[in-house]
Here is the input.
Amino acid sequence: MEKQIDNHYRYLQQHFSYLIRQQALLPGEKLPSERDIGERFNLTRMTVRQGLQTLEAEGLIYRQNRRGWFVSPPAVVYNPARRQSFIEYVSSQGFEPSTDLIGVTVNPADARMAELMKVDKGARLLFLQRRRSIDGRPVLIEHIYINTALLPGIEKEDMSQSLTHLLRSKYGQAYHSMNLTFKSTALQEDAARELGAAAGLPGLHIERTNYDASGRVLELDYEYWRHDAVTIQIDVID
Amino acid sequence: MEKQIDNHYRYLQQHFSYLIRQQALLPGEKLPSERDIGERFNLTRMTVRQGLQTLEAEGLIYRQNRRGWFVSPPAVVYNPARRQSFIEYVSSQGFEPSTDLIGVTVNPADARMAELMKVDKGARLLFLQRRRSIDGRPVLIEHIYINTALLPGIEKEDMSQSLTHLLRSKYGQAYHSMNLTFKSTALQEDAARELGAAAGLPGLHIERTNYDASGRVLELDYEYWRHDAVTIQIDVID
DNA sequence: CGTTACTTCTGGTATAGACCAGAAGCAACC
DNA sequence: GGTTGCTTCTGGTCTATACCAGAAGTAACG
Here is the structure.
């Protein structure tokens, strides 16, 4: 008993949504081109695009700039309270994580960063930009600010590895507490481009501040996720 | 030093984004109609709509079905670990919360709900549908399933009030733990309509399971938020 | 063999119209 | 005074077409 659909783009949406749920289209698989779909269903490309955009908003498909539309793989579950590294939680869920280091610089803190990281203006901050992928699909851009004063020599380490592991092994320093903020919003132009997507992609912003036992800011982490790639899960116990 | 914008819709986006940040347009204020904007900037309505949609994706504006586009108020911060009721955390941030009860029914649990709530199939579940608003703007649809066996007589209470308060006062039963899941996705047709929006609205789904001290499921809560209305914030301490 | 240049395919952006459906205000009517 | 029905304004959907820009494959070239 399917509801009658009178909108063309909704019909498309339901059609592909059905195919994906039935696994007639598999994760990562490419959809036909917008023009092909339009021909097959006798619809204008604009209408086709509207249908595809609603599927994108639902998280069922995603696009790669000028390459095409693809079926979204299942979202990875991210449970921040577990203190697992990206590599740990992605691979434990049966996916293949990878990391590209986009940039490493050491910069003096400006007024804003100094306040956020509770350091003096001009303090040396290590700034990392990384792109992280799941099964080869870029899903996440990270901007990380590290307080070098608390972690001397860290700028000489391999920054494409897990920071969690690095801090554990080299500095014997487990994180003590963290503050997390999640916000659903569009991805900024830079982040979107580095994910191989057009700007305006629906995204999830995560802001994470990591503190040591004395309440000092070890690390400030901005994550920009493709919105279909992740589900957040948290347990709260009184 | 503004970057040169060569896309028309991006120009619009930047233009309104600027006006909103400068508070030349205030929260809740209505934008000119799509046709007016098109005339003023010499753009097609389709192009105008694309610009507005990117602003919507950013969370700067929202629409009400066939009424117009409006500037989004600041997002309310929702900190689930604090165990505050909607009324508490909204009003403590200087906004005016309100609740509409859309539906109350008592239904026997089907197979799926029985499993989720760890009850026998056919067990009586109280099902609530509520719409919650901030400063008169509908932001959230709630679907709540309550295990009546654990909370006898609860179906006779006023269900437009805070459940948190009700459980505290009438049943002396504080929640013990909860499991939370966040997912960025499009709002379902029903939820979108009840929020006065078109389907496909970018949204945030929150699924919350509340347990008592014995690990029994007191309440299962599905929340469908307008994505621009809320920011999630959590502190994690080891 | 590796590089370059061309061609083709893809989505990205934009124009110019059209008609529909719901929201809201208003005027006439009872 | 309240209801009814019309008009107007709004966004919602859709057609038909055009050109641009980046990705990818291919053929020619050194």
User: Anything to note?
Assistant: Residues 33-35, 45, 49, 63-69, 198 of chain A lie near DNA strand C (CB under 10 Å from a C1'). Strands of chain A lie at 61-64, 68-71, 76-78, 97-108, 124-134, 137-147, 177-186, 202-211, 217-226, 230-237.
